[in-house]
């Protein structure tokens, strides 16, 4: 069963350019992963510094493997000092 994920990132405006560079690497590498069906970065049009990562994975196992990948771990480490608040992550299965 496919699993959908939406992660919400809120960055300090001083770090936006650096954050986008880190996202570029994360997105490029993640899209190569087995089981990744969608991995898109969306910037909130009304709230500067707020981004949504919209993900679709073939299975929850694929998503779990993704979480341990080097590019994900490096991203988390590098962005931790740039975030205004904790990242919110929502996971679910399509109901309709």
Automatic annotation (TrEMBL):
InterPro entries: ABM_dom, AI-2_Isomerase_LsrG, Dimeric_a/b-barrel. The keyword Iron does not apply. PROSITE patterns: ABM. Coiled coil: none annotated. Keywords: Monooxygenase, Oxidoreductase. Residues 3-93 form the ABM domain. It comes from the Bacteria. The keyword Hydrolase does not apply. One of its GO terms (molecular function) is monooxygenase activity. PANTHER family: ABM DOMAIN-CONTAINING PROTEIN, QUINOL MONOOXYGENASE YGIN-RELATED. This is Quinol monooxygenase YgiN. The lineage of its organism: Bacteria, Pseudomonadati, Bacteroidota, Flavobacteriia, Flavobacteriales.
